Input
Amino acid sequence: MIVIIMISLILYIIVAFSTYKAMPEIDKQRKYVYIIVGFIIVFLITYILASISLMGKDVQDAEILNIAKKTAIYLIAPINSLILMPIGNSISKTKGKRLTKQKLKKRLLIWMIVFIVCIVFFEQSYIKNFVEGLLVSKTW
Output
């Protein structure tokens, strides 16, 4: 599990650095708040999706299912952050007057539709299959 957590931390560092660099018009404190709050929101969304997708899963050892669920969350949450955090670039452009608020609203709407379709529908089955693969292999 230590290796999984290290991989997750490395991915989070990459996302944080790229998000920080993508928002030049926003001051440092707001960047830090955006990154931390974004990570928390993405982690919670991933946790909820994992919980929903594994609801009613019947296994002999609940502890193994719990470890598999944590593994999935630790690996998938930073990947979701890679997908979701770049919206900060558009917010930064709005602050710098390079993007109107109307265009930002359109981008956010399109982004939310894509997010809901891709993450919610596809990720639920992906998490379920990922955890089932871990439960079958039991090599960890």
